[in-house]
Design goal:
This protein is α/β, with parallel strands linked by helices. The protein has a domain of about 220 residues: Rossmann fold, CATH 3.40.50.1100. Helix content is about 45%, strand content about 15%. It has 20 helices and 16 strands. The longest helix has 22 residues. The chain binds pyridoxal-5'-phosphate. Pyridoxal-5'-phosphate (PLP) binds next to helix 11.
């Protein structure tokens, strides 16, 4: 399988190159040349596969340059640490199927992609005899999942900036108690945007970036999307086997359009009609829901909500879907992205029919989030985290009586225990993995929000060619 840029400015590259490139060098996003369609007969033979076995089958369709036995080892290593034998089990409550994606080390679905990406980076760097210094800013969840993905790896160092004293104590300690020597936590005396701005300007210093082999782990890496396709296929097989239904809907809480884009790939990978609709669910930052219902893709102010991982107004993976919407025409895609960059809005109302073939959408208010958490706890004895509650609410709104609805549970309720407790009066049980983080040793560098301080710190600690 070869990869192309949504903006048409690179010649086709194999999977490994696409992973190491991250963002395409022409500023676009990388996509496989085509989405292969799995035949009905092949699909039927997958029904007894374990999660890692299935991951190998799915990923093989998109990877041409990693030997199968190596890929099998990478997958095995990535998912052996999950706390559930099925990796992403389905549970059944209130007429819905809930796909629990939070059994990884940091209790959020980002582990599924980042455990794999960390191992993949290590493998590819080993092959190239190279190294990588990862730099990123986090408002909470992504940072810890990224750190857990690469901790202890010898060819990788990771520098993660978070806003000092402005993330939840659990989120902070999930990062700062990782004391592996390749992990550097930097607490910036400022807010998330200060950290983000520092990271952006360091990446724009191309000489510095090249000299220190700087890389990112943000949600636009194709390998992250690919790892997420697997659980759509896994749960679809489960529904077909146990519920005897052939078609199903998925409800997905969305911020950066990453998780739901993986669903879009799965929809076009599986036999026609297996995935009927993808229900896109946002919080009050509703740009994506507005896009699906009216074709209006226009930025508004970001509002802080109880589902912080979805407080986003310009979805970094949106360009991938836009490319399909523009009939895979890179010129039209580039033009639309340029226009959005300048004006902060796009009118895609002429594409509404096409959008509706794949998606339906709801925006969920803060009151509805709390009410859904409370109702689910009271009626079904099951605690939802605020992100998951948004998907569940949207799933209930769009549910059709004869089609199973699978709601993606993206975080463990204990990660947002204050909100869950306020809505239900019940304190979620703390999983073993985060029980001891309040007594563990912490390591973190506190810094003023200045580019030079962060750059100097990287210079002093980064891996360089001399380390190889
Ligand atoms: C990141 C995140 C999301 C949103 O996922 P996207 O891929 O950005 O759409 C939803 N829920 C949780 C808990 C997250 O951490």
């Amino acid at each position: 399988m070869q990869y192309l840029s949504t903006r048409g400015g690179i010649s086709p590259i194999p999977f490994s190159k696409a992973v190491m490139m991250g963002l395409a060098s022409d500023g676009g996003l990388l996509l496989p040349r085509n989405i292969p369609r799995i035949g009905k007969e092949t699909f039927d033979t997958w029904s007894e596969l374990s999660y890692p076995e299935l991951a190998l089958e799915v990923m093989t369709r998109f990877i041409g340059d990693i030997p199968s036995s190596d890929l099998r080892d990478l997958i095995k290593k990535s998912y052996s640490g999950f706390r559930h034998p099925e990796v992403t089990p389905l549970v059944h409550h209130g007429g819905l199927h809930i796909l629990e994606l939070f059994h990884g080390p940091t209790l959020a679905f980002k582990d599924i992609a980042l455990q794999f990406l960390g191992n993949l980076f290590e493998y590819l760097l080993e092959k190239e005899g190279s190294h990588l210094n990862i730099l990123g800013a986090t408002s909470g969840d992504t940072g810890s999942a990224a750190i857990y993905g690469v901790r202890g790896k010898t060819r990788i160092k990771i520098f993660i900036l978070h806003p000092h004293n402005r993330i939840s104590p659990v989120q902070e300690r999930q990062m700062t108690t990782i004391t592996d020597s390749n992990v550097y936590n930097i607490a910036i005396e400022g807010d998330f945007d200060d950290g983000q701005a520092i990271v952006k300007s360091i990446f724009s210093d191309l000489d510095f970036k090249k000299h220190y082999h700087l890389g990112a782990v943000n949600s636009i890496n194709w390998a992250r999307v690919l790892a997420q396709v697997v659980y759509y296929v896994f749960s679809a097989l489960h529904i077909i086997k146990h519920e005897n239904d052939k078609a199903m809907d998925f409800a997905i809480p969305t911020g950066n359009f990453g998780d739901i884009f993986a669903g879009y790939i799965a929809k076009h990978l599986l036999p026609e009609g297996t995935i009927h609709r993808l229900i896109l669910a946002t919080n009050t930052n509703d740009i994506l829901a507005r896009f699906v219902t009216t074709g209006d893709y226009s930025k508004a102010e970001v509002k802080a909500t109880s589902s912080p991982s979805m407080d986003i107004q310009a979805a970094s993976n949106f360009e991938r879907y836009l490319y399909y919407l523009m009939d895979k025409n890179p010129d039209r895609t580039s033009e639309a992205m340029r226009k959005f960059g300048e004006e902060g809005k796009l009118d895609l109302s002429s594409c509404r029919e096409k959008i509706k073939r794949d998606f339906a959408a709801s925006a969920v208010s803060e009151d509805e989030v709390a009410a859904t958490i409370q109702q689910f706890s009271r009626e079904h004895g099951y605690l939802l985290d605020p992100h998951t509650a948004i998907g569940v609410r949207a799933g209930l709104q769009h549910q059709k009586s004869n089609i199973p609805m699978i709601c993606l549970a993206t975080a463990h309720p204990a990660k947002f225990s204050d909100m869950v407790k306020a809505a239900t009066g019940i304190e979620p049980e703390t999983p073993e993995v985060i029980k001891d983080i309040f007594t563990k040793e912490q390591r973190c560098e506190i810094m003023p929000p200045k580019i030079d301080n962060v750059m100097d710190y990287i210079k002093n600690h980064a891996l360089t060619s001399d380390d190889e």
